[in-house]
Design brief:
- This protein is of the alpha+beta class and about 90 residues long.
- It has two helices and three strands.
- The chain has helices spanning about 15-30, 80-90; strands spanning about 10-15, 40-45, 50-55.
- It has a three-stranded mixed β-sheet with strand order 1-3-2, with helices on one face.
- A hairpin with a 5-residue loop joins strand 2 (about 40-45) and strand 3 (about 50-55).
- The chain is globular, with a radius of gyration of 15 Å.
């Protein structure tokens, strides 16, 4: 079955793309794409998938669990040990 479009990437709106990309790069080990700039920063997985971070003016971050500014998107990652994974992520910042 062919579709109208192909999945290209997952993009996350944020105020500081490079800072957020560096955070997720530290978690995943995926490098930041050399073609990235201050407005659009990409991480590239070992399988060639892209996780992108895009600067948005007047960005309003989600407030969880409230719904005034609900989560707009989030990536999920699997870990073998949830406590160890949480500690490692919190150590990054």
């Amino acid at each position: 079955m062919s579709g109208i479009a192909r999945f290209n990437c997952f993009a996350i709106d944020c105020p500081s793309p490079r800072e957020l990309a560096e955070f997720y790069s530290a978690i995943t080990g995926w490098p930041i794409d050399d073609d990235s700039d201050d407005e659009w920063v990409s991480l590239v997985s070992d399988a060639g998938g892209h996780l992108n971070f895009q600067r948005v003016a007047d960005y309003q971050p989600p407030q969880w669990p409230g719904q005034e500014h609900p989560q707009q998107a989030h990536p999920d990652f699997a870990v073998d040990d949830l406590d160890a994974g949480e500690a490692a992520v919190l150590a990054i910042g």
